[in-house]
From TrEMBL:
GO CC term, one of those recorded: cytosol
Organism placement in taxonomy: Bacteria, Pseudomonadati, Bacteroidota, Flavobacteriia, Flavobacteriales
A GO molecular-function annotation: nuclease activity
Residue ranges annotated for the YqgF/RNase H-like domain, each copy included: 14-112
E.C. designation(s): 3.1.-.-
CDD domains registered for this protein in UniProt: YqgF
Enzyme kind, highest EC tier: hydrolase
NCBIfam families associated with the record: RNAse_H_YqgF (TIGR00250)
Subcellular location: Cytoplasm
Family: Belongs to the YqgF HJR family.
Database matches in Gene3D superfamilies: YqgF/RNase H-like domain
A GO BP annotation: rRNA 5'-end processing
Protein name: Putative pre-16S rRNA nuclease
Role according to the record: Could be a nuclease involved in processing of the 5'-end of pre-16S rRNA.
Length: 148
């Protein structure tokens, strides 16, 4: 009797990594290697963000970094865009091999807060701004993935 081994090769893919940039804290979310599921990874002090990203990308394959694009309701840039632009310059200098895309992040903080309510988190947990930032990064990543 002949036996055959069927091997399915998945394409070599890396993760997508999303950033909800803040002047104090930054939420980070990633996908799995097949880029199917977006999950919150952590929240990092923004002062340590570049070193965190360099360390993470040295251990994990990241195909793209998605950074939230904060806009006002009239579609103009929000005040925090100035800080994000400075960060993007540093990111390009420190990790030039990974492309960066921007995604409109309007309403992600409100949606993150609503997600926390819907999942039954108590008031004390909902005041955890780090968790809100991480969930916001996850929503940015999900939005990007849905647009593909």
């Amino acid at each position: 009797m002949n036996s055959y081994i069927l091997t399915i090769f998945a394409p070599d893919m890396g993760r997508l990594l999303a950033i909800d940039y803040g002047t104090k804290r930054t939420g980070i979310a990633v996908t799995d290697e097949l880029q199917i599921i977006a999950s919150g990874l952590t929240t990092v002090d923004t002062s340590r963000l570049i070193s965190f990203l360099k360390d993470y990308t040295s251990k994990e394959t990241v195909d793209k970094i998605v950074v939230g694009l904060p806009k006002q309701m009239d579609n103009s840039a929000s005040e925090s865009e100035i800080y994000i632009q400075k960060f993007l310059v540093k990111l390009e200098k420190e990790i030039p091999e990974i492309p960066v895309e921007r995604v409109d992040e309007r309403f992600t903080s409100k949606m993150a807060f609503q997600t926390m309510i819907d999942s039954g988190l108590g008031k004390k947990q909902r005041r955890n701004k780090a968790l809100v930032d991480e969930i916001s990064a996850t929503l940015i990543l999900q939005s990007y993935m849905a647009s593909l």
